[in-house]
Write a structure and sequence with these properties.
extended, single chain, mainly alpha
Length: 119
């Protein structure tokens, strides 16, 4: 990203700062700030970085892999249940208020459930 800024703007970046004495909507006058190309704020984010050449994957322990598969199955089940609710709403409309449980009651019921001890 630092190279992109240098290529597009050179060492100077223009900033229009609201609240500065020269700023107004549609104003063409801006303050200029010199940008240090080595600033860590200008480093590319992880999504902007090119993929590494190392395509080998780190293998998981069998118990860890089983836990990941179980989590994926629970997530898929929850997503299927949610999709079913949305499809029902799309087909039949929203339920009446009398058939619904207020969110405060749902919250209190959730908070009243026993929680596992944390180490």
């Amino acid at each position: 990203m630092a190279e992109a800024l240098s290529q597009n703007f050179g060492p100077w970046v223009c900033l229009a700062l609201p609240g500065s004495s020269e700023w107004s909507p549609g104003a063409r006058t801006v303050d200029t700030v010199e940008v240090d190309a080595s600033s860590p704020l200008l480093e590319p984010s992880m999504s902007e970085q090119p993929p590494s050449a190392d395509h080998s994957r780190q293998q998981m322990e069998p118990t860890t892999a089983d836990a990941v598969r179980a989590y994926a199955a629970r997530t898929r089940e929850n997503a299927d249940q949610f999709a079913g609710v949305l499809e029902d709403i799309a087909a039949n409309g929203l339920p009446s208020v009398a058939d619904c449980t207020p969110w405060e009651e749902l919250r209190e019921a959730h908070l009243a459930r026993p929680r596992p001890a944390v180490a």
